[in-house]
Amino acid sequence: MQLLQALCQISAPSGHEAPLTEYLLDYIRTHQAGWRTHPTVLAGGEFQDCIILVFGTPRTAVFAHLDSIGFTVRYGRQLVRIGGPNVETGYRLVGQDSQGEIDCTLVVDKETGALSYDFHRDVERGTELTFYCDFRETETTVQSCYLDNRLGVWNALRLCETLENGIVAFSCWEEHGGGSVAYLAKHIYETYGVRQALISDITWVTEGVRPGQGVAISLRDSLIPRRSYVERIRRITEAAGVPHQLEVEGSGGSDAKELQHGAQPWDWCFIGAPEDNVHSPHEIVDKRDISSMLALYQVLLQEL
């Protein structure tokens, strides 16, 4: 969990993923010698702050978004949401501007819902603020801000250790409308002929998806994947005996929306551990679900 803690502590809200991108590139350079297969690393230039890792002869691509929710400083101490963060007066926010480090408090107007911050000075406009990371680990759970989607990134990095054939793509902007997966998917499809994907992201605990019951395979959210592809995944999962549960939702989305709306014929399925206290500083995930998530990805990248 040390790697997960390190990932959660890096500030990388939508549009400013570069600090996390740099961390991942350094991590890849340092650790790839111990991986089963050395990947081709595509980064920078036309890929902006995204990273594509190509292993062997790929058949399936895994997408994991780097960015998180947060806030942008506007004028007169106003804050604008990045994505859809949960907001409560008293949440601790951190950041940095040209005057130094910022450690301030979120304030939510009870009547209007307007957001502002409490700090001993004005913060420069355009500064990004993110939740302070208080990483808590027990024998059975991990709890922190930004498990969505640093846990999906963690899963993808751990998958790289044993991956022989496949693609791992780290995307940007997912929490605030997306935009990067379209060009990543186009490049992957046109260069490698890959057109089936898994979305390594974190879903929600609901009345039908419970913590500790295994990784969630999503049958649908606001979008509907191709049923025959999802059924292949279910058959492989059941044959492997990986603990899992099925999710059916009518709202929400992920990087998959750009795959489904794109010009290439991508199949996709969202597979992720469920978390509670979504989009807050206190997101919590059961370690059993983390283990089953990684185990399932390892199986699927071999069998699909």
TrEMBL record:
Q: Which GO MF terms are attached to this record?
A: aminopeptidase activity; metal ion binding
- Keywords annotated in UniProt: Aminopeptidase, Hydrolase, Metal-binding, Protease
Q: Looking at the keywords, is Hydrolase present?
A: yes
Output the Pfam families linked to this UniProt entry. Peptidase_M42
Q: Which GO terms describe its biological process?
A: proteolysis
Q: Does the keyword Protease apply?
A: yes
Q: Where are the transmembrane segments?
A: none
Superkingdom as given in the UniProt entry: Bacteria
Q: What Gene3D superfamilies does the record tag this protein with?
A: Peptidase M42, domain 2, Zn peptidases
Family of this protein? Belongs to the peptidase M42 family.
Question: What is the official name of this protein in its record?
Answer: M20/M25/M40 family metallo-hydrolase
